[in-house]
Amino acid sequence: MKRQSEWIRVESIRGARRISNYCWAFILVLGALGFLLVGSSSYLGKDLIPFLSSQQIVFIPQGIVMCFYGIAGLSLGFYLGFAISWDVGNGYNLFDKQNGIVRIFRWGFPGENRRICIQFSMKDIQAIGLEIREGIYSRRIIYMRMKGQQKIFLTHIGENSTLKEIEEKAAKLARFLCVSIEGI
């Protein structure tokens, strides 16, 4: 969602609550449970999953490895589940011409630094840039180049926008901030 006036522009950034993350967490937990149960079945000597026979799996070394993969998969699945529940990465980009500030806010993991808020002057912005990589792992990111050549990324890395959409978004932002655009 975007809100814009003559002086203020606010862009919402989606966090970890995406359908793909829900799917990956579910697949990870389900697969890891399968590995863990098969590994445990080889230790106990009886099938904990009726349709999967573990009689041909020797506990050392195959069963231990299956248990290890199951525990590792469950850990990753629960990590992703917690990231989804805390909506890590959710936030906004605020551009305020009236006060001459830019504020970038994101939610992080719980703890002392859960709220990540960066604020700086608009005078420090040199340009708006695009980083575009095509191929299997395509990447289209809008960033701000600050004085001192520091890049501050404004879009989420996993955001799937077309090339035209990302170029238009960058051009509108550059016009709003009255700075040049690079990388097109």
Automatic annotation (TrEMBL):
<protein>
    <recommendedName>
        <fullName>Photosystem I assembly protein Ycf4</fullName>
    </recommendedName>
</protein>
<dbReference type="InterPro" id="IPR003359">
    <property type="entry name" value="PSI_Ycf4_assembly"/>
</dbReference>
<keyword id="KW-0934">Plastid</keyword>
<keyword id="KW-0793">Thylakoid</keyword>
<dbReference type="Pfam" id="PF02392">
    <property type="entry name" value="Ycf4"/>
</dbReference>
<comment type="similarity">
    <text>Belongs to the Ycf4 family.</text>
</comment>
<comment type="function">
    <text>Seems to be required for the assembly of the photosystem I complex.</text>
</comment>
<keyword id="KW-0472">Membrane</keyword>
<feature type="transmembrane region" description="Helical">
    <location>
        <begin position="59"/>
        <end position="82"/>
    </location>
</feature>
<dbReference type="GO" id="GO:0009522">
    <property type="term" value="C:photosystem I"/>
</dbReference>
<dbReference type="GO" id="GO:0015979">
    <property type="term" value="P:photosynthesis"/>
</dbReference>
<keyword id="KW-0602">Photosynthesis</keyword>
<keyword id="KW-0812">Transmembrane</keyword>
<feature type="transmembrane region" description="Helical">
    <location>
        <begin position="21"/>
        <end position="39"/>
    </location>
</feature>
<keyword id="KW-1133">Transmembrane helix</keyword>
<dbReference type="GO" id="GO:0055035">
    <property type="term" value="C:plastid thylakoid membrane"/>
</dbReference>
